[in-house]
Amino acid sequence: MKNENLKKYALITGGTSGIGLELAKLFAENNYHLILVARSLDALAQTKTMLTDQYAVEVLTFAQDLSKPGSAQAVYEFVKEQHIFVDILVNSAGQGEYGLFAQADLGRLLEIIQLNVAALTELTQLFLKDMLAHDKGKILQLGSIASEMPGPWQAVYHATKAFVLSLSEAIREEIADTQVSITVLEPGATDTDFFNKAGMTTSKIMDSKLSDPAKVAADGFKALMEGKDKVVSGLKNKIFVSASNILPDAAVAKQINKMQKPKE
Asked: Which tens digit of pLDDT belongs to each residue from 235-257?
């Protein structure tokens, strides 16, 4: 394997924009070679050029739409063909869809579940098996404070992120006696292209101060390296999550409804 000469590799899905891109920069700064997975060949090429110009690391790219069945397996097979052991897996790719559940396009909702749940689950298991075989490795899952609460106007997105948190916490306990760790990063509303892609620019939440993706990435990177189970990024979000954990789910859902419904 290429890792036999002490190279370290991080595989990052959704690594060409937003929090995923900021994480890619952090791993490059810390001498990790990168495998970036995204849908756009152009975005991958631009990101590769930017990273290799700034950092002395190898950047491999693989274009794949993870909202399609079979895509996660294709990513794994690509890595195996390169004879690379993935030291760190970052499941950063994810999308949402804004609107009332009953009025949403069902096909689009199922694509989001495929991306946020099915592909993440498949990638996690495939690479976790290799990590356990070597008794080393780390996994960073991009959750959300949405993982902690029901979310009217983004019902499926919140549900997928709750799945990510539950899955990861369970796996963490199952592998507690190994040298492999799994960490969930939980940001709040962050200044990325997520809202445009989700058709969410009319939501009241857009009037709030959005988090800096570089700061969110830094919080996730630190927690991952320290082997923590999860980190909520930002003091305001920590307070919000703590409060939501005390209140009944119905009360939390009512509050989220007020925050996320369309502007008047």
From this structure: 988 898 898 889 888 998 999 88
Q: Which amino acid is at 147?
A: S
Tokens found for residue 59: 């950047």
Strands (E), 187-241: 230-232
β-pair partners for 141: 91, 184
Instruction: Write the CB contacts of 107 (distance below 8 Å, at least 6 apart in sequence).
Output: none
- Per the CB < 8 A criterion, the answer to whether 143 and 185 are in contact is yes
At 183-204, the pLDDT tens digits run 999 998 887 878 778 787 888 8
Count the neighbouring beta carbons within 10 Å of the beta carbon of residue 183: 24
CATH pick for 2-260 out of 3.40.50.720, 3.40.190.150, 3.10.20.30, 3.50.50.60: 3.40.50.720
Indicate the DSSP class of residue 8.
Answer: -
Take residue 109 and report the two structure tokens written for it.
């909702």
> What pTM was computed for the model?
0.93
Banded pLDDT at 59 (limits 50, 70, 90) = very high
Sign of CA dihedral 250, 256, 261, 264: positive
Residue among 186, 173, 91, 95 at smallest CA distance from 139: 91
Beta strands per DSSP E along the chain: 9-13, 33-38, 59-63, 88-91, 137-142, 180-186, 230-232
Query: Which of left, alpha, beta for 162 (phi over 0: left; psi -120 to 50: alpha)?
Result: alpha
Summarize the confidence of residues 136-162 as an average pLDDT: 96
Q: How many CA atoms lie within 13 A of 102 on its CB side?
A: 0
- The CA–CA distances, whole Å, from 204 to 22, 226, 258, 264 equal 26, 35, 8, 9
* Domain chopping of the chain, boundaries: 2-260
Other Cβ atoms closer than 10 A to 258: 9
